[in-house]
Amino acid sequence: MNSQDINENLQQLQQRIANACLKVNREVKEIRLIPVTKTKSVEMIQMAIALGVSHVGENKVQELIGKAEQLQDEKLEWILIGHLQSNKVKKIIQYIQEFHALDSIKLAEKLNKELQYIDKKLDVFIQVNTSNESSKYGIQPERLAGFLNEMQQFEQLNVVGLMTLALHTEDELQIRQCFRLLKKLLDKSRIDYPKISRLSMGMSGDFEIAIEEGATDIRVGQAIFGQRNLPDAYYWPEQGAKS
Ligand SMILES: *Cc1c(COP(=O)(O)O)cnc(C)c1O
Fold first, then answer.
1. How confident is the model at residue 238 (pLDDT cuts 50, 70, 90)?
2. pLDDT band of 236, cuts 50, 70, 90
3. pTM for this entry
4. Using one digit for the tens of pLDDT, what is the confidence trace for 80-122?
5. Is 3-224 in CATH node 3.30.40.230?
6. Strand, helix or coil at 202?
7. Cα 192 to Cα 15: distance, rounded to the nearest angstrom
8. Atom of ligand 1 nearest to the CA of 163
9. Element (H, E) at 107
10. Which of 72, 73, 85, 143 is most deeply buried (CB count within 10 A of its CB)?
11. Cα(140)–Cα(127) distance, rounded to whole angstroms?
12. Which atom of ligand 1 lies closest to the CA of 101?
């Protein structure tokens, strides 16, 4: 992958995003593309920056910090999109602008406390398990209302949206149902919490369906930076075990 490949991929992606929007009468500017750079080199990220990329998503804490350190002179925002353990909160918070996988009150508590110390606020997405079996991460849909209620006590955390990973399957209908459920949960949540407005859903393999179902933030890696050498099982062990 060189800069020209990445550029072409980004342009193709923009076209596909535009087509998906057109299909359901949405505007392209409603969609934010989050380029996902996990397993990719800092050189590749620098190429992306040169092409206008201003924020990237990473799945793992250690990898994000390592790259952020190397790229600290660049103007780039880091978004943590993967699971976060409480014992890594303190390390990570200075590096990130957003966190897309909040799924426990204990973790929220820890985040809030550590953010207070450094006087920082963080935009968070609540990860919901919409696939009901394959992912051990994310809260169950029926727990969302109670979860959001509890989140109100954490002043450093702005809950801006919901996030999900669709079922790992070829079956488009099943994928669509995951996204549709998240949209339904968002619409319901907004009655009590009007500030919650975003839907982080859709990846290289399913972002068009996600856009059709209301995504505002799509997290796309391989369609921009090429295939990964590491299997997805490294990031979603429980799914890898099944497929
Ligand atoms: C890797 C990853 C993505 C992007 O997946 P691609 O197949 O590379 O588009 C999206 N979301 C999360 C949480 C990820 O870990």
1. low
2. low
3. 0.94
4. 999 999 999 999 999 999 999 999 999 999 999 999 999 999 9
5. no
6. coil
7. 36
8. 13
9. helix 105-117
10. 143
11. 9
12. 13
In angstroms, rounded to a whole number, what is the distance separating the alpha carbons of residues 131 and 115? 31
pLDDT tens for each residue of 176-214: 999 999 999 999 999 999 999 999 999 999 999 999 999
* Pairing of the two strands 198-200 and 55-58: unpaired
Centroid of ligand 1 to alpha carbon of 206 (angstroms): 10
How far is the centre of ligand 1, averaged over its atoms, from the C-alpha of 82 (Å)? 9
Measuring CA to CA, how many Å separate 101 from each of 44, 62, 198? 25, 16, 13
DSSP annotation of 142: G
Phi, psi of 68 (to 5 degrees): -60, -40
Q: Which residue type occupies 44?
A: M
Nearest CA to 96 out of 119, 124, 74 is that of: 124
Residue partners of 127: CB distance under 8 A and separation at least 6:
100, 101, 102, 103, 137, 138, 139, 162, 163, 164, 165
Contact 31, 218 (CB under 8 A): yes
What residue's CA is closest to ligand 1, atom 8? 221
Q: Hey, what are 160's tokens?
A: 């801006």
| Residue that the structure tokens 């050498």 belong to | 229
Q: How is residue 49 written in tokens?
A: 């920056």
Residues 136 and 111: beta-carbon distance below 8 Å: no
Instruction: Output the residue whose Cα is nearest ligand 1's atom 7.
Output: 204
How far away, in angstroms, is 217 Cα from ligand 1 center? Answer: 12
pLDDT of residue 91: 97
What span, in angstroms and rounded, lies between the C-alpha atoms of 189 and 214? Answer: 15
CA of 141 to the centre of ligand 1 (A): 21
**Hey, what are 19's tokens?**
């087509």
